[in-house]
Hints:
The chain is mainly alpha-helical. It has helices at residues 2-21, 25-35, 40-64, 70-93, 96-118, 133-150, 154-165, 170-196, 203-223, 229-252, 258-301.
Amino acid sequence: MRKLLILALVGLAAQLVDGALGMAYGLTSSTLLLFAGVAPAAASASVHLAEIGTTLAAGVSHWRFGNVDWRVVTRIAMPGAIGAFAGATFLSSISTEAAAPWMAAILFTLGAYLLIRFARPLRANRAAGRLRGRFLAPLGLVAGFIDATGGGGWGPVATPALLVSGRMEPRKVIGSVDTAEFLVAGAASAGFLIGLGSEGFLLSTVAALLIGGLIAAPIAAWLVRIVPAQLLGATIGGVIVLTNARALLRVGELGGPVPSLVYAVLGAGWLVALALAVRALRRTRQARAITEAALAARAATAPVAGAPLS
């Protein structure tokens, strides 16, 4: 019961992060399950089955808050589902010994990407026009495959790619990616069901993660408007990097002072990334304040329509 309660809290925390960043539910949950000794395929299968419920709740919540661009959802979800089904089939076909380092390496890389991505501000490019299907379809295909084979990755691949394009509001990027993930999670679960059978799913774990995620989904859809993504992304990225570094060191059978040195270097990098994220957040807020002040001053000095000219 204590373990299930902890998993429910993990599901709640992971969904809060995912709803605010558009990523990291699968990364956070899968990392914990691997840390607890769950086989890679079973961990990914259980997380994706739970995500069917959490992503449905998240999609509805984001839709009610006006955070969804349905044109983007329809163009990225189906390729993502195809990639996820292929990835689930691939992961189900390889041994646990071979899957463990593969999955840990993917999670470690995505965690490092989160650190780097949120250590610097996003650059807007509003004049670039609408996102095209020839960009969204390959993005969905790759993100879906990585998501299923790594136990997470749909958000870390899809969300930054859409954000850096500058063609969508951040809240709509997050809402659209979360909504499309419902189809991706369903396709991955179908692939795992075919590859592993029903015994490949840890149903008690699925239920605990689902309960926590369902509680957090509407809160996260509201938090996306107020939580600083810079700090949250850098924080979660560091946790994922350090946790999966442990798994990679164990696979490499590295002993002596090497693990301590690796942890020290990664910890220092995490602190640097957090400091850069804080600086980027402050600069973004200062730039926004200056712009708003300039617009207010211009509006105050503009002549009132219909007023007599002196």
